[in-house]
Design brief:
- The protein is an alpha+beta fold.
- 19% of the residues lie in helices and 29% in strands.
- It is built from four helices and 14 strands.
- The strands form two sheets. Strands 2, 3, 4, 5, 6, 7, 8, 9, 10, 11 and 12 form an eleven-stranded antiparallel β-sheet that branches. A three-stranded antiparallel β-sheet has the order 13-1-14, with no helix packed on it.
Amino acid sequence: MYWVTPRHLAGDDDALAERVGDTLVGLGWRMWPTALHTLLYVSPDGLCGAEWILAAYPFELGGLPVAWQLSARSHTESAMAEWNAYFTAGVPYEALADLLVAIDARKTPDIGFEGAETVLDAHCARGWIRDVDRPRTTAMDPGFCSSVSLEVLPPLIEDADPRPDLVGWQAWAEPVLGAPYLWCVSFSSSVPHDLVAAFASSLASPVPVPRRIVPRSAEGRLTVVRRS
C-alpha cells in the first residue's frame, strides 16, 4: 500500500465503484441493479440519484468512458433531473465521495446561492493557481497537470435548462501533455456552485491518499509519502 500525493493524480485504485458505493450505503441511499447492468442509488428523500453506468458505456468524456452519473430533482414527482454530473473512471474516489456527502447534506440539492467564484476560491485555498488569461473561469494545479474550467458544455451533458451554449464546470487531469487524459468530469450548467466547490476542495486536498496501484502516466509526478 502506498500513501501518495497529489490526490488529483492518484487515480481511482481500480476501486471507484466499490468505494463510492460504500459511501452511498453509509449515507443510507438505497440501491437497485438495473436491466442495463448498472447500479442505481437513490437518496432517502428521493431527490438525488447516483448511478454506476460503466457497464452500459453511455458515452465518453475526453476519450474515457463515463463511470458515474449524479443527478438531482426539485421534487420526487419530477421525471426530469434539474442537473447532472458525470465522472469517468480514474477520478479519485475521495473527491467524488466528499461531493456525495455534500449533496446528501443539502435539503435542496437543486438550488444554490453561491457564485461561480466559490469554485475557484476552493481550489486556490489549496494552492492551485488561476489561469493568467482566464482568471475568473479557470484554475490549475501548480504542476499544470490538472485543470477546472467554466466552459461550454460538451455533447450529451443533460440539464433542465434547454438553452443552447450553456456553460458548466469541467475538470480533467492530463499528467503528460498530449497523452490520454487520466480522468474527466463534467457538471451541467445548473449544478450549484457550492457543490462543485466541495468536489474542487477535496480534489486539491494535500492530504495523502492510500493506493495499491498508481496510474502509470502519473508515476513521475506522484510523491510516495510512505509505504505500509
